[in-house]
Amino acid sequence: xxxxxxxxxxxxxxxxxxxxxxxxxxxxxxxxxxxxxxxxxxxxxxxxxxxxxxxxxxxxxxxxxxxxxxxxxxxxxxxxxxxxxxxxxxxxxxxxxxxxxxxxxxxxxxxxxxxxxxxxxxxxxxxxxxxxxxxxxxxxxxxxxxxxxxxxxxxxxxxxxxxxxxxxxxxxxxxxxxxxxxxxxxxxxxxxxxxxxxxxxxxxxxxxxxxxxxxxxxxxxxxxxxxxxxxxxxxxxxxxxxxxxxxxxxxxxxxxxxxxxxxxxxxxxxxxxx
Length: 274
Description:
By secondary structure, this protein is mainly α. The protein contains 11 helices and 4 strands, in the order H-H-H-H-E-E-E-H-H-H-E-H-H-H-H. It has one domain (about 75-274). The chain has helices at about 1-10, 20-45, 50-70, 75-100, 120-140, 145-150, 150-175, 195-210, 215-220, 220-240, 245-274, and strands at about 105, 115, 120, 180. Helix 2 (about 20-45) packs parallel to helix 10 (about 220-240) and helix 10 packs antiparallel against helix 11 (about 245-274). The two termini are about 30 Å apart.
């Protein structure tokens, strides 16, 4: 994993002061846990998928918390996670009860524990990938600093990077029986309004967290967070296409998330050269 981080540093042109063994180890452990999912499914069937997904996400969350704490400090990181967690849990609770802003859906009992019908794992997932999306947005924006760089652009691109992930996630989670839609929609069974809800939620959460996200902190720790975003893209694209029988979401999500990742890598490289 240290090799992957070094390669990302070379592509982006951004160097870390030192390779953090704990971060690299957690990212590697998360990758192995994700790779193990189809193996567990083949061996034991789908009954272990919820527990395996929970374990993999908690490892990924630990990696992101370690990365963010190294530059924000422990207090800022806990405040940021608490803020994002409460906001996203509230939006999910509102959505599952009223249909706003995602559409009418409900969680099954597959993911536990839950509060008010919303698994506690959901805000953990939001924070984990939002942090990676912030790094992507920060790497993209310097290419256009003279024209659009600013808080509004950062919020919008972060939200787009987060929503691109859901092009994979929602069809996959529905396929695993983690939640169900009252009226399946036009995107491989997912209502289109769901993605507008994701964009809105990500924008609100990012805007609320802006006072905590210092630009110099985002810049210094881009590589490991972009590694997490990039590995997620690889695993989702090939996993859905090859192992989970969802080639449509694999293609669309692969193009959307991959395009943003490519812009981030190119933007970081140009920013460093400039």
